[in-house]
Amino acid sequence: MRMYLLYILLVMCIVGQTWAQDQTMIQLKALDQQLQPYPRLKISINHGAPNKLDAQGLAFIDIDDKELPPMSITVTDELLEVESWNFSKGILEIVIRPKTYKNITAVLRDEKNQPLNGIKVIFQAKEPIISISNVHGVISMSIPIYEDPNKTTHFVVEGYQLIEKKFKDNHGYLKVIPIPELAQSRSLVPKVKVIDSFQEFNFEFLDSIKSLTVFYAVIKNFKVGNFNEETTRRIDAKFYELIRNWADSLNSRKSENFLGKISDSSLVQSDVSMLIEQALREGKALTRIREEFDANVDALNEKLKGGGTNLSDSETQQILDDIAKLNEILKENEEQFYQNQAQFRNILSSVTVHLSSINDLEEKLNLSENQRVKQTKDFNKKLMTAVAVSLALALFGMISFMLKTKFKKQKNQLVRANSEVKKVNEHLEELVTKRTSQLQESNEELDTFLYKSSHNLRRPLTTIIGLTNIARLTLKAEATDLFDKAAKTANQMDKMLKKLIDVNEIHHPSHYSPIDFSTQVQNTVDEFQELIVNNNIDIKSTIQPGIIYNSYPELIEMIIKNLLENALWFSSMHENNQLPNVGINVTQENGQVSINLQDNGPGIEQNIRDKIWDMFFVGHEQSKGNGLGLYITRKAVKALNGDIQFRSQENGMTIFEVQLPANGKTN
User: Fold this and answer.
1) pLDDT band, residue 313 (cuts 50/70/90)
2) Domain that holds residue 33
């Protein structure tokens, strides 16, 4: 019994591999384009860890079941690439070829180093290559690997003259200037010719195709009706062979062994039935292995007939030695097989002797008759199965032909749809670029108008303020009241125009330099000294010593000045007997600067807190401001990539907190 079980295990090892619960061991085989072994490569499957091949281009690896069949295979050598692969019966064959191209990128700039968008750039090689620059002026091309992008004659920029270029490690830049309109109209733009490496495929090498992917890549370039009868027959045979291999690769796992265990408690009749069933399965497996072996031998004979004369004497002798060795192995296997068979028969004979009796003889005769009937049924079942398989194959052929026709039609529809989508995308990108340019031009015009109009309006106001100052010195007290009111109104208008000018300056800051927060705060407090004294405001400032911070002084001044002015005005409007007070606190931690201003004014009402950042919004009926202070403050903070928040209690404390990043620069 033990010998029989060992025989079963031996047959299982010959038929297939032993599969783990979640992983499968497969063989990797790397070949060049002449189907010779490619040694010592590192192959990555489905973007996983690289697998190193030996000197014969082979490796055995464990791979998750869900990763089969592979969807992606790459080689780590930058000068090589994977041409095709085929997975069948636990063997993954990979065809490697040298790379014929390399990827380069460049930034297209004008003479002011500004990126150019939507410009056609042509690389003059054996076959011209075209790329269009994106919104960042970047072009990307795949050029022949032997080409040097630093050669002067390689690049042509439509509508521009190339004045400077530089490439290093396949990355660089192109600097151009516009061509005059006459020269531009005479410039010729070469047309790109699309090359398909399979358009000139020699169908004498059809047997070299090992995967459906490569088969499709070749066949799609030819019209089926143009093939002669012999070529059509070979193509059909190759297609069905690849389909069978693909199906085998999906169903090559060993079926589960459902043979029950023979024990002291099992029935003898059931034990014998299970052994018979297992022996029949093994007989089928041996027959299939023999057929596959014969087919491989026939294929080898055909190869030797077709190309045996190309072998050297040493190669021929090596093959003869290998064949002799194979013959010895087959003889040893045959002897071992017959020895096992003889031993198994002896074991069965001994069992038969133990069970022999007169009554058992009658049972054996009945059993023999039953076996004959069963064999007849099995034969009929096999015959029906063969007929069913034949019909299924015929149906599969018809379905395959129909699907092929349908896929070809769908492919043509997809090509047309892709062409239409491409045209729409090109038009959409052009429209977006045009609208973006118009919007930028409008914003620049608006900034210019705001800046110039504010300055122009300040001139007459400055004159009015000067006249009112002269009037105070020359006129009587009664008349100066009117000029005081006029001066007050003019000052308010001048103040508003200054803030409008500040809005423009936020977009164009200058003088990036170290900030002295103590001086900034003190100068701002001095500017509001009259307001502080008239309203008896208690102001306290705390500046952390040793702050080192670089930014734009005018933006920092805007933030402190507007927040301080806001705090002073509202603290002076307190409705209780408390002394109005304002606090300024500036600290630095991990390079970031925090500016906090607090006051004990009436606070901010709950229903207006989401509006205080709006332009020209006045949050209190007694406010004398123009609604621009907090708007400008928040805009300046955002320009410095900072953040501003506030906390307020009605009839209580209001705190504004500003957080500025370490570099203090605008975008």
Assistant:
1) confident
2) 21-98
